[in-house]
Amino acid sequence: MKPLRQFDLNLLIIFEALITECHVSKAAEKVFLSQSAMSHALNRLRQQLDDPLLIRTQNGLQPTPRALEMLPDVREALQLINRTIAPSASFVAHKSDRTFSIACTDYFESVIFPDLLKHLQIIAPNITLEIEMISEHASSTRLENRQVDIVVGMDTTQKIPAHLIVEQWRTEKFVCLVGKDNHLVKESLSVEQFVSLTHVVFSDLTGDTTSAIDNWLSSQQLPRHAIARTTNYMAAARIVSKTPAIITLPSQMAELFCQMLPVRMVTPPSTIPGITMTTVHHPLFNNDPALKWLKEQIHLFKAPQVA
User: Boundaries of each HTH lysR-type domain copy (predicted)?
Assistant: First the structure.
């Protein structure tokens, strides 16, 4: 018998059909070949296996002992190959107890996550979601190693490795927050007023400190005076409640803080851009049914929720 690398594995399908049917024409029909092609394949099998495989008798073709010995193993091998190349099993959410890991901004964790989890508890009560803040490595090595399933909330202006799959998720307008006792700031701000104030600036943990607002200011060659940079919107909002500074942040986050802290919303300059947030996942797992399902659930919350 020839070494495996010299053996045409397609002939195993022919072998199984021939030894099962013990009839060249029926075996040919089973694998959608012509009778002449099947006869040719049988001759090749005989040469490669160094065995006649089928012998003509008074009762028709009969398999040799070698063929009968091989048949169970060949069937098992073909079944294993079929299982291996078959599409991944579908994800059955209500039966799953899978744990998903999401790296996200505190916007997602504070504004979206509670409603998302409430929704998932209804349709998939046994799954677990683990949340971590986005770090410099969350969108590269941790995604590739599957320590993180998906990254949610990064701004489209941020640097994301080109090999990752980035999808737009949620767009919001920016607003400003000031302390309720800050009487120097009216209900809206011009560009001149905006840059004249002190700012608390939000920076995430990816190491990229440039935001859409910074790009907007830079395009107009305008500075802003930051008295603090923080990686947490809640901390920034608390600073604003105690100082004359302002923070610029997504409107849904601002509405949440207005319910919790002595702060109020102010309309920013009309030309200030909005923020478009993304979901990011690794192409290695793009066809994973469970990840597809999780993305679908997160993308149900694409539009700002109206209270």
Answer: 7-64
